[in-house]
Amino acid sequence: MSKYQFLSPEWREAVRAILAEHAGDPTDQPGVTVNAFVTGVPFGEGALALCSERGPVMGWEPGSVDHPDFTIRVDYATVRELVLDTSANRLELAIGSGDIEVDGDFGAFRDWWESRVGDPDTRDLEAEVRAITA
């Protein structure tokens, strides 16, 4: 199985292919809309503006939306680690250390994270995404 650098255009293309295989599944449900600004990216211009309505692990596309439910600011290493280790403990460490900043409804952010990460319908899909992540 090929692995791709996290958040690279190739990684996002591979994630799109995985999502297409699950079209119509319970996992194919848009949810909360999130903007993310990722710094310290080891490719391109060193920063990415991304948006997603598919949850913390998948569905990240370039750009931003006008009225997100919230916006997160995070460095590349932290967000990669959070995607590979979605445990509540890892999230708490990132929040407590200030490695992730949330603009907007913090409760919505926490609910978004916990509901998507703990969802049995998305567990296998997220495992597929992690399996292609270098």
Number of helices: 5
**Main sheet: which strands, in order across?**
3-2-1-4-5
> What is the chain-wise order of helices and strands?
HEEEEHHEHH
Count of discrete structural domains: 1
Q: Outline, from the CA principal axes? A: globular
- Going by CATH, the homologous superfamily would be SCP2 sterol-binding domain
Radius of gyration in whole Å, from Cα?
Answer: 14 Å
- Unreliable residue runs: none
CATH architect. name: 2-Layer Sandwich
Q: Sketch the major β-sheet.
A: 5 strands, mixed
Percent of sequence in beta strands: 15-25%
Distance between the termini: 11 Å
The CATH C-level name is: Alpha Beta
CATH names the topology as Nonspecific Lipid-transfer Protein, Chain A
Mean pLDDT: 85
Strand segment count? 5
Helix content: 40-55%
Which structural traits does this protein have?
134 residues; five-stranded mixed β-sheet; alpha+beta; 19% strand; single chain; Nonspecific Lipid-transfer Protein, Chain A; 5 strands; globular
What does this structure look like?
This protein has 134 residues and is α+β, with helices and mostly antiparallel strands. The chain has one domain (9-127): SCP2 sterol-binding domain (Nonspecific Lipid-transfer Protein, Chain A). 42% of the residues lie in helices and 19% in strands. It contains five helices and five strands. It has a five-stranded mixed β-sheet with strand order 3-2-1-4-5. The longest helix has 13 residues, at 9-21. The termini are close together. The model has no long low-confidence stretch (mean pLDDT 85).
